[in-house]
Design a protein that fits this description.
- With about 140 residues, the chain is mainly beta.
- Helices cover about 5% and strands about 40% of the residues.
- The strands form two sheets. A five-stranded mixed beta barrel has the order 4-5-6-8-7.
- The radius of gyration is 16 Å and the shape is globular.
């Protein structure tokens, strides 16, 4: 029996279901407000800029830069203990929105602010894929 806890799977709700469905296709979606044209992340019902509910999904290139990061050396819960140390980053997508995510890959701990990153999809089983990021070669 494997005693390693399973990493959590994505939990979709009415606002995020298209996002998670696209992730299963290895696509990263962000939202655009049809009223003010602002792009944003994370999935939500109203535009955080003008409060319009006229939102549409658009594909992101899945590339950006590290805006900020922290290295987690002691996992807050047992589920993530096997991954420590790991890197949590704020990525500024090339389209503008920022998202909090994990940085994965063998060189993740060498992260620096301004590093180029690209989306990578982590398999969580049963077809569920979680958008993460990895450092890009220059």
């Amino acid at each position: 029996m494997d005693a390693t806890p399973q990493l959590p799977k994505p939990v979709a709700n009415a606002d995020s279901q298209p996002y998670w469905a696209a992730a299963r296709e290895r696509r990263l979606l962000i939202r655009r407000c049809s009223a003010c044209q602002q792009l944003h992340f994370m999935p939500r019902y109203l535009c955080p800029h003008c409060w319009s509910d006229q939102l549409e999904w658009v594909d992101s290139k899945g590339a950006g830069v590290v805006h900020s990061f922290t290295i987690i050396r002691r996992a807050p819960i047992a589920t993530f203990a096997g991954n420590a140390p790991y890197v949590v980053v704020m990525v500024e997508l090339d389209e503008g929105p920022r998202m909090i995510t994990n940085l994965v890959g063998d060189d993740a701990l060498q992260v620096a602010i301004g590093d180029r990153v690209s989306v990578a999809f982590e398999d969580r089983g049963d077809g569920d894929l979680l958008p993460q990021f990895q450092r890009s070669s220059a």
